[in-house]
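Provenance and format

Records in this collection were gathered into a single text stream. Each protein contributes a sequence line and a token line. The two records reproduced below are adjacent in the stream.
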Amino acid sequence: MKSCQIKRETRCGIETIIIENALIRAVILAGKGADLLEFIWKPLNINCLYRSDVPMEVYKNLDLKNKRLKNHSDYTLGGWSDALPHRGEYENIVLEQDNGGIAATIPYKCEILSDTKDFVSIKLSAELPVFPMLVEKIFQISESEPTKLFISENVKNIGNDKMNFTWTQHALFGGDFIDADNENTEIITTSNRVFKAWEHMENPNNPLEKFEDEIHNVNLRQGTFDLRKPLPRGCSEYEFVVYNHLQKGEAILLNKKNNLQVKMNWDLNEFPYLRALYQNTGRENVVGLEPSNDLFSGWEHSKNHKTFTTLNKNESICTNFQLEYLEWESEN
């Protein structure tokens, strides 16, 4: 086997691209939103990304070329999807949670840029319906940095007017990496405070500081938690907070049992917040770590506080992400 390689296959009607080297494997759904479905550490055969209960077989009966999904969460398989635009406005079009995340609802064209033993690279591109954007994503794995998946993304306004939108990288972790008992896992960010966006929705006239808690003592619907760890068993409802005051675009999940870390890096200028979802059903544990330009849970609040991005006609944004496995050694 070549050190780096690309495979193309069809899974239940969805074009699927697999890029890998001797240490990591990335499974990318070109036929559905350019989602990153799996990111596997091959020495232990561990996938750090959450896989939902939705069977891929449902896509046998869906034709996304002719009828796209409703939003980024519709028939979600889990993994890392692009909630773009998450919410927003263009001319007389308004996007909210129920109709947003268009970039994750359609198929993408795939172009192989490089396929050598030292470096593999693919480019996925699509023009969005409803909200006129051109989205291009490049996924890369190299032999020189064998533990890293590189992702770059370019977004361009191809409409006739300016657009305002929020943008969230909807990355869900779990799977083999986080067990149901939360003692083995730590969540490391560059902020010690979180903003409780759902509580703000209910009391929007109070000062924003009233909705902030220290990360080790966060008061939520199901109790008070230290969010440097996943939720304990029995917290089957999702809890949602937003890490603000970040010093760096970086988040780490540490699995002490397997002496393994997953590190995500992103551009803090484009995504100054980290939206976070937590859930533990007892059967599975989920942690969503989602770089975003938005602090709030409703478009009106995002507009009022200007936590959104504006693109004028023909204007574009280029940004980058990295997802990496690192071995961890206990200080003991």
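Adjacent record:
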Amino acid sequence: MNTIRTSSKFLCMTIISFMVIGCASMQPLSNYARTGDTVAISLGGTDSNALVPVLKKENIAIIITDAANNVYPIKIRNVFRIYSDPTSIYSYSRGSVPPHMGQWMAIIDLVDPNSGQPPALAIGPATLSVSSPQIQNYVDYPGGGFPSGSGNLGAIPIQILAGTGSANPMNYESYVNVTPLDDLEPLPQVEISVAGTPSTLIGGGTFTFRYVTVDFNQNGRPQVTTTTPDPNVQLASNYVGQADGTTQLTVLITNPHGFNIDNRQTGLDVGRSLLRSLRFNIIWNNYTAITDSNWQQSLQLVSGQYFDLNGNVMSGISPVVTKVR
């Protein structure tokens, strides 16, 4: 009853329609479940609750405290990010909540993470609690000091019903993985961001990478993308094969209105972007031999620079490449 029992396609639409950014009351989807059932919760925004560019479920733990104060660990099945509809009020407005944030979602099964068995949860009000060094549990954007439990990932209320449920298999859909939510999780990737403090508006940047072609191309070449749905950011990339078995990848990121020198929302109404919108990511398929420890043998930044709105190269700032997943 009231657990997630829909296809993965409908689930994603449902999650987005209930998307919570910032300080709204933190609740699971849905508010009621049996032990063993599947529910979804929001973990907060990329640049608010999340303290790292990409959340990893391996670094997150969730416990449930039932009506009898019994505490049990529960299983995190998937962690992935969703974005607001670009035609929504959140994307349009310039309120106190920072724009263009991705919302991190967790799909959890109310079972033991190791045995997969449903715990003997007492019927009645229970609380889910998220614990991770990568997540800030509470963010008070307006500064109004909202009461405890409002947007607090350490105290997410859920009502436990009688009976024992089962984990939702998430319906298979044609041309989608048989475990479709797995395909929503972030791929291996590096993030290119700005190091240093700019003195004036940034027009964009240009970057040259070189990668070992065979390390990627046997399973698809690396792709360049942004993780900020800012419509004013323009991103372009070009691939040129080299005679030595490598590929040269050139990336251009720009905003003709400029990127701010920080993340204050000044000028967004005339098309500017936040400084954090200047970052971009290079992603690749899961099925490679590239790891967190050896990725620099396969992909290197050859050169990179930022320029101002007049096209002049800027000093004092430089690109930094970080393996984030």
